[in-house]
């Protein structure tokens, strides 16, 4: 009798909990999100264009990323949502994600096992980090720099540094493609490849500082600019100073 009735009861209890979570998320959504995204997440168009895009099909992962990093709700429309202090607690973010996920199928919030290399041996982990570095240089460094320090983008946008991002948020960004970032589907980068890229980024945080000016880790462009303006400029100034203070011979006029 227990085997016959217990699964049904457990399933009913889980469904009720999910429904309650979705209802809590809808209440939060109507207060804080519906002005831009519509009362049913259908999106809102203003006179000057679309104010808030439709959220149907964006999935729970997109909400967890945007709200969990403070990008949403936006303080004001702009070229790019800025990272700021979170406006919602983790429990409220979970409820919002559950409600938006109920609007249409989309990427789910990843499990920890998807974006970490737990369970691998030391040699396997080292191989994954090397592979992740190669994948990052091929697919990500054009915007985020070769070590994830970020960089400028067209139309006033910017690729933010990745050193302060959590592993989960990096994975969610790859599967949802926030703002100008493309979506890296599993057919392009498999889950193991995404985890390897994240492991490579985590390894860059542990790189020792050998001294000198890091120049923000922005690579040869900033270093070359510094060399030209400061290095060669200082040498030219020093050479001019030597020439200005050296003894000069004067031609003396002789009487006829």
TrEMBL record:
Keyword presence, GTP-binding: no
Keywords: Cell membrane, Electron transport, Heme, Iron, Membrane, Metal-binding, Repeat, Respiratory chain, Translocase, Transmembrane, Transmembrane helix, Transport
Post-translational modification: Binds 2 heme c groups covalently per subunit.
Subcellular location(s) of the protein: Cell membrane
Domain Cytochrome c: 20-104, 127-205
Residues spanning the membrane: 225-243
Binding site for heme c 2: 140, 143-144
Catalytic activity reported: a quinol + 2 Fe(III)-[cytochrome c](out) = a quinone + 2 Fe(II)-[cytochrome c](out) + 2 H(+)(out)
Broad class of enzyme this protein falls into: translocase
Recorded GO MF terms: heme binding; iron ion binding; quinol-cytochrome-c reductase activity
GO CC terms in record: plasma membrane
Residues bound to heme c 1: 33, 36-37
Membrane topology reported for the UniProt record: Multi-pass membrane protein
Signal peptide: none
EC number: 7.1.1.8
Pfam families per UniProt: Cytochrom_C, Cytochrome_CBB3
Residue stretches in coiled coil: none
PANTHER family from the UniProt entry: CBB3-TYPE CYTOCHROME C OXIDASE SUBUNIT FIXP, CYTOCHROME BC1 COMPLEX CYTOCHROME C SUBUNIT
Subunit structure, as described in the record: The cytochrome bc1 complex is composed of a cytochrome b (QcrB), the Rieske iron-sulfur protein (QcrA) and a diheme cytochrome c (QcrC) subunit.
Protein name (database record): Cytochrome bc1 complex cytochrome c subunit
């Amino acid at each position: 009798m227990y085997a016959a009735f217990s699964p049904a009861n457990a399933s009913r209890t889980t469904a009720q909990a999910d429904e309650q979570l979705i209802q809590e998320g809808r209440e939060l959504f109507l207060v804080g999100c519906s002005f831009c995204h519509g009362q049913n997440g259908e999106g809102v168009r203003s006179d000057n264009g679309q104010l808030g895009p439709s959220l149907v099909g964006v999935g729970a992962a997109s909400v967890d990323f945007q709200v969990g990093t403070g990008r949403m709700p936006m303080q004001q429309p702009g070229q790019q949502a800025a990272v700021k202090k979170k406006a919602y607690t983790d429990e409220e973010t979970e409820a919002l994600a559950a409600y938006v996920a109920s609007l249409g199928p989309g990427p789910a919030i990843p499990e920890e096992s998807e974006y970490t290399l737990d369970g691998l041996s030391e040699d396997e982990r080292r191989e994954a980090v090397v592979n992740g570095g190669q994948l990052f240089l091929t697919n990500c460094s054009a915007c985020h720099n070769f070590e994830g320090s970020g960089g400028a983008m067209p139309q006033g946008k910017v690729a933010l540094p990745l050193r302060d991002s959590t592993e989960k948020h990096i994975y969610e960004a790859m599967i949802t493609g926030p703002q100008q970032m493309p979506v890296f589907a599993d057919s392009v980068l498999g889950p193991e490849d995404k985890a390897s890229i994240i492991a490579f980024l985590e390894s860059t945080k542990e790189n020792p500082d050998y001294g000198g000016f890091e120049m923000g880790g922005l690579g040869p462009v900033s270093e070359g600019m510094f060399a030209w303006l400061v290095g060669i400029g200082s040498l030219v100034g020093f050479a001019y100073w030597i020439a200005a203070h050296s003894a000069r011979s004067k031609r003396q006029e002789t009487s006829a």
